[in-house]
Amino acid sequence: MDFLRAGRVESSMDTAAKHDEMLDHDRVSARSPERALPRRGRQRALRPEPSVCLIGAACGLGAPGAYCAEAPARLRARLALSTSLRHAFVWRNMLSARAKPNGDDFPPHGLVPFCRRLARPVRECVASGTRFLVLGGDHSCAIGTWNGARVGLGRRGPLGLIWIDAHMDAHTPRTSPSGRVHGMPLACLLGFGDPLLVRLGERKGPCLLPQHVCLIGARSFEPDEEALLARLGVRVYRMDEVHCRGLAAVMAEAVGRVQSGTGGFGVTLDLDAVDPGEAPAVVTPATDGIGFDELRLSLRAAAAAPRFLGMEIAEFNPPMDSDERTAKLVEKLVETAAQVPRPASALELERHYLARNYEPLPVVLTRGKGVYVWDDVGHRYLDMMAAYSAVSFGHAHPRLVRALAVQARRLSMVSRAYYTDRLGPLAKRLCELTRTQRLLPMNTGVEAVETALKAARKWAYKVKGVPEGRAEIVVCDGNFHGRTIAVVGMSAEPQYRDGFGPFAPGFLQIPYGNAAALEAAITDCTAAFLVEPIQGEGGMVVPPEGYLAACAAVCRRHNVLLICDEVQTGLGRTGRLLACEHENVVPDGILLGKALGGGLLPVSAFLTSEEVMNVFTPGDHGSTFGGNPLGCAVALEALNLLEEEQLVERAARLGDYLLQRLRELRGPLVRAVRGKGLFTGIELDTSVVSARRVCETMLRYGILTKDTHDTVLRFAPPLVIRRAQLDDALERIGRALNDVRPLR
Ligand SMILES: Cc1ncc(COP(=O)(O)O)c(C=O)c1O
């Protein structure tokens, strides 16, 4: 059905008007300005498609005095004059209801059929993916609007609803002091209240589910209402909480909630939520309300969410609006709903201007705190990726941010042409922690790897006595050490190498997890064995127990350097400071990166013995940024945190728990679960589903993860994660896995 054709108003439903007391009196008339819009073919060329369908719900049956029934007509006249908005929307319906002159029945005569009729266009909008805006009327119209939206979602999932209101609207006929239905619609939608109105909701499928409803701005209500909502588990953000946290934060959280596990969500706004100083023309004003500008900004963010379906504005009372102050505010709200910023723009910029060397998941992240990140529309995610272990301390850890800021004000960058007061202390600390003697600071992980390769070769020539140009370095199948030409040259992954040759010679690959293969590969020219204690990018592969210790023994026997790449596994990630400690191995060389920079800066290091490091002489190697005081200050504070917050022990404890709980996950998708500490992964059965699809489903459940090699999902949260947060993550992961639709 084409709702967007300007001037066209619904057809089949017109006939339904006859049998009740309502009339569709005023489906946009031939004289109305909207009628003058050209037909669709021409319209396309002339002006943009309207983005919102307006539905007038001119019903005041639930409220005292019923004056707000005049609201839609008043607003329509006003909006028709708005040049900026005229083409942003199209009037879909103008429904109205009339009470019997002396009707004193309950619910008020005509309300039930009115709500049914209102539900219909809303349902059709939602089903066709058109955003709608219902202009009430008193708030009893919400019963029709949200039942329509609920049914329109069909199999897409249940409805989420943000209810913004000074009152709770959770009365039942028994608890309402006034007996007015406009104080009851939320209770009705949740399945409580007058059976006639509730039955309206039960017609297709269950009522609105309390866990998908957030109520914002409540400040005037009866204890019965509060008790009912608390018992049901509706999240109520009372006005004092809104004042304390700010509406933007509350709304962002609410949007996250109502999007989680639902097919879409809407917002219903009782104008009495706005402070009466700004919006006085409402039916039942309540003091100390939400500021209008704050409301508008928050609604704009909510309306930009991908699963936003539509909005309802109720309880505007025109007879009280002699100066049109409140009508102006409503007009601005319509504008907000009709001209939402396009959430895709940041994503599109990246897609347009960036190299296509990554394929990010479709989410635009804008801020992070602790284990959470938020997207550009306020949806919160639990970060189970932690930027490939770079964010082990969580996002924006206050101590790290402070260390960064303090050092940035003191001294940030001078190059290694000079000494600084930060690099020495960091080197001492790291050497002591890792039982090594010397450090060479770099920035990214791969630079540390390159440094180690250069050191190993030079050591082989200068110390071991390997003939010039013949040094060999043994690496493993499935390795990942970064992306420079030398490093991809020693990778077994065809895609990493494809098109980038010729590569440096002198590397030999052996199977991972097999110490005998190492021994067999070693020759007199072997300088070093470079290995990850657990392969992360290779698919979260944990080698057999005793492997690393056996490799260390082989290396010792043959005077070969054992270099452990702990860029990802180091600094507590696997439940030990270094993953090689699980086997009591002290390597000849250690590579650190990622977490060393506290998630704020790239800081990496190659650590080794004096004998090996002494092969470097001034000018042999270096980096402008390596060892800069800013990075050192952050790294030092990161090491302090690791110790003081006992993050290594926490990773061991919570890691065991995570692994055990992941292993309990059942289902056709899960092939294997593996890992150590907070460094775990699930291998998926990719004949059933692609890893990408699972990651996208996880996103919908508020979990940030990413696959490696299209088969393994990694779950490696910040080490600061708390048990309750991990439980929450596990619950979401389980639900997401159950919800993934298999490949056809
Ligand atoms: C084990 C290992 N080494 C080295 C690197 C490269 O680090 P960077 O991306 O900082 O260069 C990575 C990156 O994922 C890694 O996992």
Protein model, in words:
By secondary structure, the chain is an alpha/beta fold. It has three domains: 12-338, Arginase, Chain A, CATH 3.40.800.10; 359-389 and 647-739, Aspartate Aminotransferase, domain 1; 405-644, Aspartate Aminotransferase, domain 2. The protein contains 25 helices and 24 strands. Strands 1-3-2-4-9-8-5-6-7 form a nine-stranded mixed β-sheet, with helices on both faces. Strand 16 (526-531), helix 20 (547-557) and strand 17 (561-565) form a beta-alpha-beta unit. Helix 3 (111-128) packs parallel to helix 4 (142-153). The chain is elongated, with a radius of gyration of 32 Å. It starts with 21 loop residues before the first strand and ends in a 5-residue tail after the last helix. Residues 1-49 have low confidence and may be disordered. Pyridoxal-5'-phosphate is lined by residues 388, 444-446, 449, 480-482, 532, 536-537, 565, 567-568, 593. Pyridoxal-5'-phosphate binds next to helix 16.
Search tags:
single chain; 744 residues; alpha/beta; Arginase, Chain A; Aspartate Aminotransferase, domain 1; Aspartate Aminotransferase, domain 2; 3 domains; nine-stranded mixed sheet; seven-stranded mixed sheet; 25 helices; 36% helix; disordered N terminus; binds pyridoxal-5'-phosphate
Layout of secondary structure:
Elements: E1 22-23, H1 40-46, E2 52-58, H2 71-80, E3 89-97, H3 111-128, E4 131-136, H4 142-153, E5 159-164, H5 185-189, H6 195-202, E6 213-218, H7 223-232, E7 235-238, H8 239-245, H9 247-259, E8 264-270, H10 292-303, E9 308-314, H11 325-338, H12 345-353, E10 365-369, E11 372-375, E12 380-383, H13 386-389, H14 398-410, H15 423-434, E13 438-442, H16 445-464, E14 472-476, H17 485-489, H18 494-497, E15 507-510, H19 515-521, E16 526-531, H20 547-557, E17 561-565, E18 589-592, E19 604-608, H21 610-613, H22 629-644, H23 647-664, E20 670-676, E21 679-684, H24 691-700, E22 703-704, E23 707-708, E24 712-715, H25 723-739
Helix pairs in contact: 3-4, 8-9, 9-10, 10-11, 14-22, 15-22, 19-20, 24-25
The protein binds pyridoxal-5'-phosphate (PLP).
